[in-house]
Fold this sequence. Notes:
Elements: E1 3-7, E2 42-46, H1 49-56, H2 60-66, H3 68-71, H4 86-89
Antiparallel strand pairs: 1-2
Amino acid sequence: MRVGMVACCTGRTTFWKWVSCKYPRYKPTRDRNPARKKSPYAVLRYLPLTPCLQRLYASPATAEHMTWHASHVTEEDSMCHPSDAEARKL
């Protein structure tokens, strides 16, 4: 589920509720057909993270696997994943 927003042609800002750039938002068209969609100079595409994480943690089995590092207790004399090692804490 990618989302696109119209961005400034210079790539510095996005057009969001107000225009803060002096450059035009859309490319000029050669034909005079008003039904044709305008083409923006640049489109910023991004993947919304919140809905993806909500779907990922909706399954109890997946949520248990994703929180393993926080809930797992290691035994002192056994070799295992370094979830609580010094290198991991940095």
